[in-house]
Amino acid sequence: MTAHTLETPEADIVYDVHGPAPADSPRPPLLMVGQPMEATGFATLASYFPERTVVTYDPRGLGRSVRKDGREDHDPATQAGDIHGVIQALGVGAVDVFGSSGGAVAALALVSAHPEDVRTLVAHEPPIVGVLPDAAAAERAGKAFRDAYQARGFGAGMAAFMAMTSWKGEFTDDYFAQPAPDPAQFGMPTEDDGRRDDPLMTDRSLAVSAYQLDVEALTAAPTRIVIAVGEESADVMTGRAALATAARLGQEATVFPSHHGGFLGGEFGYAGQPEAFARKLREVLEG
User: Fold this and answer.
1) For 9-45, how does the pLDDT look when each residue is reduced to its tens digit (9 = 90+)?
2) Cα dist from 12 to 31, 35, 72, 158, 193, whole Å
3) Is 95 helix (H, G, I), strand (E, B) or coil?
4) Are 206 and 138 in contact (CB under 8 A)?
5) DSSP 8-state secondary structure symbol assigned to residue 266
6) Which residues face 3 on adjacent strands?
7) What sign does the CA torsion over 40, 42, 45, 51 have?
8) How many angstroms separate the CA atoms of 13 and 58, rounded?
9) Sign of the CA dihedral with 249 first, then 255, 258, and 262 last
10) How many CA atoms, within 13 angstroms, populate the side-chain half-sphere of residue 176?
11) Integer Cα distance of 214 and 217 in angstroms
């Protein structure tokens, strides 16, 4: 693996190239894109593609990618511009992209703005709230976990986030009638460390879930777009958003093994089925 830096006036974007050099790869490079997850989250998945170039990166303002624009928000359109810059720096033409969660949203924005960059996009569970039939209730649920974070800190906020993302079906009155979840029940700290800068639990990443899908641009693009959903997460918010996004694009979502983090090894204590997930991803990318 080699690390590289794409220097721009607004940010220095750090990306890693795994495996053979892009010009020597038997297939186009495969970019793995997350948000707010950084490059480290793809370590296990990348290891299952040793024969081709795999590129991972830290989104601007996260990990090693330092912002110079004075901003703190995480906007899919801005991230799409950064990914476009990385693809241009590779200098090998169109690539394949696997996008996870907020990274899937950024990848959809990339295809909308730069369709010539991407040959095949696999967008795994993009958490786009606006496509849901219960969008207003989902927005309310999102505001509740951000409010919990602001009021009581990381443990309370993350517990509320996990309760939201594990809720099956639409957000009904029964969901909002629940008592605030106990952070200890989810293995979260109960003490407030005083910090309020987590990108997931603040308005800094609100543009990700509030992203407006550009159906016209996506359907007109030459890119082959595959919306993916985890077999274990089809009933929860991210899975439902994937199913609804696929429907907006006139397709059925492709089912992948495991859950929202199904490609993870032991990176964050939320392991999925990475070997089976990689096998499915390879199958989809090879058409």
Assistant:
1) 999 999 999 999 999 999 999 999 999 999 999 999 9
2) 18, 17, 14, 29, 29
3) strand
4) no
5) S
6) 16
7) negative
8) 7
9) negative
10) 13
11) 6
